[in-house]
Amino acid sequence: MTLASGYPLADLLWTFVLFFGLMIFFGLLFTVFGDLFRRNDLGGWAKTAWTIFVVVLPMIGVLTYLISQGRSMSARHVRDVERLKNESDEYIRSVAGHDSAGLDEIVRGKQLLDNGAISQDEFEEIKRRALV
After folding, report:
1. 35-93 residue pLDDT tens
2. Is residue 132 pLDDT above 80, yes or no?
3. Apex CA 78: angle with CA 74 and CA 59, to 5°?
4. Listed residue (94, 92, 104) closest to 130, CA to CA
5. Are 31 and 63 in contact (CB under 8 A)?
6. Is 61:55 a contact under the CB 8 Å cutoff?
7. 46 close to 32: Cβ distance less than 8 angstroms
8. Quick one: pLDDT at residue 5?
9. DSSP class of residue 87?
10. 62 with 25: CB under 8 angstroms?
């Protein structure tokens, strides 16, 4: 009971606020360094300068980097995600090959065409998608 009386609730809440603020700062720091070292458009000296700036003046350096490079960080991230998605899709296509799934889809489409459930144009679209 004496331990709790020496550390009031307001101090505990303030400790939580500081802890979460510190976690947010480290998240931003990792984001900045991750983006900085993935960049291909900066040379070694520029990366060194940014690193020294962020290490010597951490809060000012991180905020300066985010303000000056925020939009290009976002564009690089979107480009990297799209590239990884395309590579993954290409790998899946190369491993999967052309199996009977496309043939099954065409047969199902033909049955729907014969039953009158779809038009000839819709059947051609199904064939086109199945053969890609």
Report:
1. 999 998 989 999 999 999 999 999 999 999 999 999 999 999 999 999 999 999 888 87
2. no
3. 25
4. 104
5. no
6. yes
7. no
8. 65
9. H
10. yes
* Residue that the structure tokens 């303030």 belong to: 14
Residue 132 parent element (H or E): none
User: Any residues with CB less than 8 A from the CB of 69 and at least 6 apart, and which?
Assistant: 35
Q: The pTM is what? A: 0.58
Q: Where are the alpha helices (DSSP H) in the chain?
A: 2-5, 9-38, 44-56, 58-96, 100-115, 120-131
Cα–Cα distance, 14 to 28 (Å, whole number): 21
Amino acid at 57: L
Number of Cα atoms under 13 Å in the Cβ half of residue 58: 9
How many angstroms separate the CA atoms of 97 and 82, rounded?
22
Return the closest-CA partner of residue 22 out of 69, 50, 62. Answer: 62
Write down the domain spans for the chain: 2-97, 98-132
Is 127:116 a contact under the CB 8 Å cutoff?
Answer: no
Q: How far apart are CA 30 and CA 98, in angstroms?
A: 42
